């Protein structure tokens, strides 16, 4: 039996590393992988660096943003977010409602008319919210097909409790957009920060460096036992003892490791819905042909929902004279897309890019695929009830939850760090270490 720290943190993603940063010397992180970072990992192949998803550094939370900027001081570029949607073979400014002047006049008219004369319907789900907020034109041309594609769930079967992430456009902006007067949506994202080199994983790497080695990697948690004085966490060959336990790994994995979990809780956990993610790197032997960092695709016949152009972040992300596209594809774990062999998945992505005019096959000089099982919590209509059951159980067990897949919330890294700060302050008070 190995004596360990006062507080055990299960999971070494941004949530777990941030918790350890705030909690100080009395905390230890247990990470199942040989590499920390979770969803914020980056990869390199043939001189091309890319992320596991399209991450950028921004926040409405000025305190957390200041903390990130302080931690990453000297390591960041400040960039302007230039993004677009791909619609009827043209770029439309992102968010879609801010680029109406780029549409055919009939389409722009439909979007404007239904926005200003929108008759609200009873609001029971995410689809209702989209119609009520944006009107029929914007809903059916872009928002419904895009959200159905990324969530792999009909919007009519999703809740709308998470929609504070989606800014509601004022009528002035919609009218300006339709008339071709420049306007901006998502103003808090208009400028963002990104590491000068190393990809977004620079953030968790910097957090890890600041916790001074208080992390044990290659420790897949298999069993968690409560004792009269705290907890025993085992990976099958080694144990750790803690006074207090915080879960920053997927809540599914936590429940599996606990003995005698009530069937109601197990059932609730099994019924949480999530999406997995595949990213495909396409390295090209020529410079980028546009000034975009990302592009969104609502079309159901295009396999990816977003492209991120990593050379936009700086010259360190591609070889000289080259550019890259990172294609994001959501799936259900174990489905046809998730199980598709890498060669077939790459071929499908290249075919879609070529058909839409983004590349020619001879331009492709390198490719790579990365997958992650837990990517996006889905806010289906049963999520709130199921999550309440799980959280109540964890509260009774005195296990705190922190992070996207522990709290089962669609949180960005800044929101995860905020949650870690909040949880750490509460835990320090509880265990008398504040």
**Helix and strand composition category:** alpha/beta
CATH topology of the largest domain: Polyamine Oxidase, Chain A, domain 2
Averaging pLDDT over every residue, what do you get?
A: 95
**Termini Cα gap:** 28 Å
Helix content: 25-40%
- Helix count from the secondary structure assignment: 12
CATH top level of the largest domain is: Alpha Beta
| Count of separate structural domains | 3
User: Please, what is the oligomeric state?
Assistant: single chain
What is the name of the CATH superfamily of the largest domain?
Protoporphyrinogen oxidase, mitochondrial, domain 2
The major β-sheet equals: 7 strands, mixed
Radius of gyration: 23 Å
Strand arrangement, major sheet? 7-6-15-16-17-14-18
> How many beta-strand runs?
19
Low-confidence stretches: none
* General shape: globular
The appropriate CATH architecture of the largest domain is Alpha-Beta Complex
Percent range for β-strand residues: 15-25%
Please render the helix and strand layout as text.
Blueprint: E1 7-10, H1 14-23, E2 27-30, E3 42-45, E4 48-51, H2 62-71, E5 76-80, E6 83-87, E7 90-93, H3 105-116, H4 126-151, H5 171-179, E8 191-195, H6 202-209, E9 215-216, E10 223-226, E11 231-234, E12 239-242, E13 244-247, H7 251-257, H8 263-270, E14 274-284, E15 294-296, E16 306-308, E17 323-331, H9 336-339, H10 342-355, E18 364-377, H11 383-397, E19 399-401, H12 413-430
Parallel strand pairs: 1-2, 1-13, 2-9, 6-15, 13-19
Antiparallel strand pairs: 3-4, 5-8, 6-7, 10-11, 11-12, 14-17, 14-18, 15-16, 16-17
Helix pairs in contact: 1-6, 1-12, 3-4, 3-5, 7-8, 8-11
């Amino acid at each position: 039996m190995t004596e360990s720290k006062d507080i055990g943190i299960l999971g070494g993603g941004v949530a777990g590393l941030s918790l350890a940063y705030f909690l100080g010397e009395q905390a230890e992180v247990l990470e199942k992988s040989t590499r920390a970072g979770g969803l914020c990992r980056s990869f390199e192949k043939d001189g091309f660096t890319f992320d596991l998803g399209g991450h950028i550094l921004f926040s409405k939370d000025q305190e957390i943003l200041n903390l990130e900027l302080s931690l990453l001081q000297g390591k960041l570029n400040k960039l302007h977010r230039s993004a677009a949607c791909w619609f009827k073979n043209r770029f439309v400014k992102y968010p879609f409602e801010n680029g109406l002047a780029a549409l055919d006049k009939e389409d722009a008219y439909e979007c404007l008319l239904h926005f200003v004369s929108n008759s609200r319907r009873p609001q029971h789900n995410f689809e209702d919210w989209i119609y009520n907020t944006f009107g029929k034109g914007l809903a059916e041309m872009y928002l419904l097909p895009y959200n159905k594609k990324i969530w792999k769930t009909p919007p009519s079967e999703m809740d709308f409790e998470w929609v504070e992430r989606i800014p509601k456009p004022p009528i002035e902006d919609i009218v300006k957009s339709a008339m071709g007067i420049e306007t901006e949506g998502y103003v808090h994202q208009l400028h963002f920060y990104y590491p000068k080199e190393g990809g977004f994983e620079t953030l968790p790497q910097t957090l890890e460096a600041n916790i001074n080695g208080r992390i044990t990697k290659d420790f897949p948690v298999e069993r968690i036992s409560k004792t009269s004085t705290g907890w025993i966490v085992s990976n099958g060959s080694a144990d750790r003892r803690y006074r207090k336990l915080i879960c920053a790994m997927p809540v599914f994995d936590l429940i599996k490791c606990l003995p005698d979990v009530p069937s109601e809780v197990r059932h609730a956990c099994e019924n949480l819905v999530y999406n997995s993610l595949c990213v495909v790197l396409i390295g090209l032997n020529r410079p980028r042909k546009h000034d975009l960092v990302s592009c969104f695709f609502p079309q159901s016949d295009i396999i990816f929902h977003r492209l991120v152009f990593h050379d936009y972040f700086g010259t360190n992300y591609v070889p000289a004279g080259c550019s890259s596209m990172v294609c994001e594809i959501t799936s259900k774990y174990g489905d046809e897309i998730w199980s598709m062999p890498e060669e077939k998945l790459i071929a499908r992505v290249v075919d879609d890019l070529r058909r839409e005019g983004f590349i020619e096959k001879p331009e492709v000089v390198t490719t790579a695929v990365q997958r992650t099982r837990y990517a996006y919590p889905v806010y289906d209509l049963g999520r709130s009830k199921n999550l309440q059951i799980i959280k109540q159980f964890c509260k009774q067990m005195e296990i705190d939850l922190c992070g996207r897949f522990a709290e089962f919330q669609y949180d960005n890294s800044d929101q995860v760090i905020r949650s870690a700060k909040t949880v750490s302050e509460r835990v320090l008070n509880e265990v008398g270490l504040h």
